[in-house]
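Q: Hi! First time doing this. I have a protein sequence and I read that you can turn it into a structure. Is that right? Here it is:
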Amino acid sequence: METRKIVLTVLVMLAASALVAGTSLLAKALGTEALGPALHPFQITAGRYIFALIALLMATAIIRPRFTKPALRLHFGRAAAGSFGVTCMFAASALIPLADATAISMLNPIIAMVLAIPLLKETVGPRRWVAAVLSIIGALLLIRPGFSSFQPAALIALLGAVILAFEIIMVKLLSGREGTIQILLFSNGFGTLFTGSIALFIWVAPTPAQWLALVGIGLLMVAAQVLFLFAIRRGDASFVAPLFYATLVFAALYDFAIFHVRPSAISLAGAGIIMLGAVIIAWSEKRRQPKGL
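A: Yes, that's right. Below is the predicted 3D structure, encoded as structure tokens:
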């Protein structure tokens, strides 16, 4: 890769990471009493999907992409997994340090790797298993089972990571047959139906600041997805993917700046080990690629 291309790719990926961490920050503000009475996690997720869908519909009207016959069952399953997984992550963000919740949520690629063995018939080499073990160790440090500082809410984040891993599997099945805009439209459309129908029963009138935060979550997530796709298309996945773990750094900075939460040494160690596992997987992917690609 040319130096200018590398710099642009890095900057775009860091921007995507900052935006994703921003959605977690807004979810934490909405799930606590920072902007008004705390909102239910499903109401927050509904806002994320509704406003993301509006933004995507506007983009679709301008771009006018070509659509193909959709795999509705996969879209339905992907949206269900995404909806419940994201809700778990938003709930955890309000209960434990933002960096901890973010780090645990980033276990989903590792879990998806394991799930791909029986579901997609993929093979996993020794380096990937080492990465998986490291990530489990990192997660245990963040959850701290058996310690006086045990974080029960971290189990909610872990559940979210497991559910989102199933979403990754379904995205892999969809990506080979449908376009990006089509996948995002169905994902956010079904997600709006799922979370919106549940949110109707626990809806609380948001304050003006909360409305802005709900809009912000949807728009930031769409923008992050666009930037992520931009970076992936201009750089090797093995180079770009580890950069996404900068989300952990931004989450910790946001949590400290807004909520004055300092990450503990154990949290830093756990997050660092999970990031090391991600780097090993990226390195493994690079070695698996045929030379010259």
